[in-house]
């Protein structure tokens, strides 16, 4: 499999004023030294609670924010080194889909013009060709192309999300970065939209980076999952392995908070205790230690390394120290 995106040691912090009139700042570590790859044709999910750095990661991937350290390579090219015209070329390849389609659809525009706008901006074809392409895109996402002249408010939430996806597909992207794309929808509609994502992936050969707080959604769409906590990736695994056998204590806790259909399994339920700590002054050592039932003294003072468990599986936790083959330094693992 070809590596489409490679993220190496990516970090991003934001200054937060200590007070309204203060010149002093605290630093919020939104993304802290994360590395992962996205392979062509796969769906990689990034999952975690709010404040874990998922949306900052999305902006870094799309070059809407510059990283403080680290790089994002797209087919080998560091996107932060691209000039404006190369970046415009790359923007066609990487498209974003958001949680609230209504906010991203101009209410005063007909949906045909909304979906066709990227074609117009990039001067693709004649007006007639653009209209045909838009009708094709609407059909592709399951919207009747005869609704071309209707307005966003005439559609349901699920339909509006389909319209947003049609727009994202207009320029034939290779990658869709979807940030909570079904979170605003009813559960019954979520399943339909997720099925559409899968169908489009097969039909168009798309690669997805799927960002979500919802493990039950991620389970149905992803091939691999990176679990994020306070700006770090604490576990990376194939979806099957992650759900069958979570390794990191945080992943275990997240899993046990998913409602299980099998009542016999409910006795294993352990709920996550406590709030997510502030990323402004994150806990020392392992950032999960205040909430971790396995935490030791070492966890309070020493950040764990990322341990490679083989077969593409990594976990950042001292419980796996016996697997650690480095010499006191974090391994430069390939995720
Ligand atoms: Fe828990 Fe320690 Fe592992 Fe962190 S390193 S998840 S505190 S056992
Ligand atoms: Mg797939």
TrEMBL record:
<dbReference type="GO" id="GO:0055085">
    <property type="term" value="P:transmembrane transport"/>
</dbReference>
<keyword id="KW-0547">Nucleotide-binding</keyword>
<protein>
    <submittedName>
        <fullName>Peptide/nickel transport system ATP-binding protein/oligopeptide transport system ATP-binding protein</fullName>
    </submittedName>
</protein>
<dbReference type="InterPro" id="IPR017871">
    <property type="entry name" value="ABC_transporter-like_CS"/>
</dbReference>
<keyword id="KW-0813">Transport</keyword>
<comment type="similarity">
    <text>Belongs to the ABC transporter superfamily.</text>
</comment>
<dbReference type="InterPro" id="IPR013563">
    <property type="entry name" value="Oligopep_ABC_C"/>
</dbReference>
<dbReference type="Pfam" id="PF00005">
    <property type="entry name" value="ABC_tran"/>
</dbReference>
<dbReference type="InterPro" id="IPR027417">
    <property type="entry name" value="P-loop_NTPase"/>
</dbReference>
<dbReference type="InterPro" id="IPR003593">
    <property type="entry name" value="AAA+_ATPase"/>
</dbReference>
<dbReference type="GO" id="GO:0016887">
    <property type="term" value="F:ATP hydrolysis activity"/>
</dbReference>
<dbReference type="InterPro" id="IPR003439">
    <property type="entry name" value="ABC_transporter-like_ATP-bd"/>
</dbReference>
<dbReference type="GO" id="GO:0005524">
    <property type="term" value="F:ATP binding"/>
</dbReference>
<keyword id="KW-0067">ATP-binding</keyword>
<dbReference type="Pfam" id="PF08352">
    <property type="entry name" value="oligo_HPY"/>
</dbReference>
<dbReference type="InterPro" id="IPR050319">
    <property type="entry name" value="ABC_transp_ATP-bind"/>
</dbReference>
<feature type="domain" description="ABC transporter">
    <location>
        <begin position="5"/>
        <end position="255"/>
    </location>
</feature>
<dbReference type="GO" id="GO:0015833">
    <property type="term" value="P:peptide transport"/>
</dbReference>
